[in-house]
Design a protein that fits this description.
The protein is an all-beta fold. It contains no helices and 23 strands. It comes from Neobodo designis.
């Protein structure tokens, strides 16, 4: 699920959602009222794994999935129409190359024309949608979920591996800012909070079925909640209070979590 920030007066917002069966939809959500589907499309024979919406654009959604192709949609008359596709991967030397890439697992817009994309390729790519080129690479991450975030000039990735999962990159240079951090979980999702001088992250994963709140400058955990009954696959942080988050788990379970920071 991806969304455009809510209207401060009404709380209404627009969001996009994808499914493993290739369905992508755009929704209007008003608190206290029934949600309404604005537009819809199906990508045949493609397992969709992620979607993202450009900032300030409530009629546009980008999708990525098992075929490695990014598709940019615009809503029109109840349908989502493809207006652009990008297919580009990484070769065995770590260089951008045309051709089928590995499965796309995460996407995050930086601005209306630039989007970070990650998956099983051991690199996160910054695509320029205007030129259809790779503007920058962030080497090392191998993502298996929504384990990519951008904030205040920093890019965070949480790789699905047993050690050195967390990497923080400088967006402008593509270079890693701090040593990789090892945590006791196999991450599926992460979210940044704070600013570059005091940067933290919530990281959700399996193996211990929990969430960790990390100080990314020191690599030390600030808090953790483990042994959640279900595997944890998603996390979203309260925009006004980083000590609170909601996690999404297997079997459709969700939990609201608060920690002391």
């Amino acid at each position: 699920v991806a969304e455009v920030p809510a209207d401060p007066e009404t709380g209404a917002f627009t969001c996009a959602a994808t499914t493993g069966e290739g369905h992508v939809s755009l929704w209007s959500v008003v608190p206290g009222k029934q949600s309404r589907c604005l537009a819809y499309a199906v990508e045949e024979k493609n397992e969709l794994m992620t979607c993202a919406m450009p900032p300030g654009c409530d009629d546009t959604v980008l999708t990525g999935g098992s075929d490695g192709t990014l598709r940019l949609y615009k809503a029109a008359e109840g349908k989502l129409e493809v207006v652009q596709t990008v297919t580009q991967g990484i070769d065995r030397h770590g260089q951008p190359t045309l051709g089928p890439p590995a499965k796309t697992m995460a996407a995050q817009f930086v601005d209306r024309n630039s989007v970070l994309v990650g998956g099983w390729e051991a690199s996160v790519l910054l695509y320029d949608l205007r030129s259809k080129t790779v503007a920058r690479t962030f080497d090392g991450p191998r993502l298996s979920g929504d384990a990519l975030d951008y904030r205040d000039g920093c890019v965070l990735t949480a790789s699905h591996r047993p050690k050195e999962q967390l990497q923080v990159f400088d967006f402008a240079s593509g270079k890693q800012m701090t040593p990789s951090t090892t945590i006791d979980t196999l991450p599926f999702a992460c979210r940044l909070f704070g600013r570059a001088s005091k940067l933290g992250a919530w990281v959700a994963g399996t193996s211990v079925n929990g969430v960790y709140v990390m100080n990314l400058l020191t690599g030390e955990p600030m808090a953790s909640v483990v042994d959640i009954p279900e595997a944890v696959y998603a996390v979203d942080v309260c925009p006004t209070d980083p000590s609170k988050a909601t996690v999404g788990c297997a079997r459709g379970a969700t939990y609201h979590i608060a920690v002391e920071l």
